[in-house]
Fold:
Amino acid sequence: MIRQLPPEVADAIAAGEVVERPASVVKELVENSLDAGARRVSIEVRGAGRGLIRVADDGEGIPTDQLALAFLRHATSKVQRLEDLAAIGTLGFRGEALASIAAVSEVDCRTRGAQIRLRAGALVDEGAAAPTPGTVIEVRDLFGNTPARLKFLKSDATENGAANQVVRTYAVLRPDVRFELVLDGRRALATAGDADRRAALGAVLGAQVAEAMLPVEAEGVRGMVSEPRLSRGSREAIVLAVNSRPVASHRLQHALEQAYLGRLERGRYPVAVLDLTLPAAEVDVNVAAADGGRGSRAAYQ
Ligand SMILES: Nc1ncnc2c1ncn2[C@@H]1O[C@H](COP(=O)(O)OP(=O)(O)OP(=O)(O)O)[C@@H](O)[C@H]1O
Ligand SMILES: [Mg+2]
Structure:
């Protein structure tokens, strides 16, 4: 028997695709903050993301009359017409992240003197709040209504590590933005946001790494790569991006490794942050994600 799914079932399935684990929530909220032009993004995670995920930014905020709308599926300020899809200049564009997060948690959002609270996708409360610059989103009881998903979460250390990796990636890609990550009350990461990529790399990977990095400033690509005296036993310290959007690309990866051929032993990898600049119309954002989440089929092959 073929039946069209009731909306709450369809929503839960769609939410599962966006929000796999606490780190997905961190990624979506941080991307929203960056899209809002934030110069400061503070992330707090408690209980490996099951307790609290809080992201505060100083971006443009959400107009009060659109706050409830922002949590509806396919509600976005970033795409209006079909043609817009051909040249996406923002990290988000699907208009589904907030709806998906709200479907599987309790969400509080404060922005521009208004606030809203949703639980399992349903509106709980809406009203005025003390005006704050930017936007604060708090996510509690993640996967509380989807026990199967909760069961699949890994250890606290692994989930915290994944959230940390999301923030580290954006911190080195956007040295112009001040990032702070606090895990269970402990400051895990803080960058200055002064546009100094070497300093951002130092904050993320340590001063020794920062010292051994060489700047890359060429037509269409910028970033930093390590001197051959510095290497890693895995690719974990390689961040590749197109228009400051992290990407998974075997070809880019291969090109980088070719450049070190004969300089690094087998099984050793450089530390690198490479951000390619391409006209937005030449990028298919649907296949560009580097996190194994939405659109993880490798792009730019
Ligand atoms: N931190 C924020 N500051 C300002 N506006 C925000 C913020 N977070 C969300 N918004 C607004 O809410 C809308 C919905 O956000 P949501 O993340 O659900 O969709 P999106 O970013 O447009 O697309 P995607 O689903 O691909 O992330 C955004 O288009 C944006 O207008
Ligand atoms: Mg978004």
Observations:
- The helical segments are 7-18, 22-35, 97-103, 147-151, 156-173, 197-205, 207-211, 250-259.
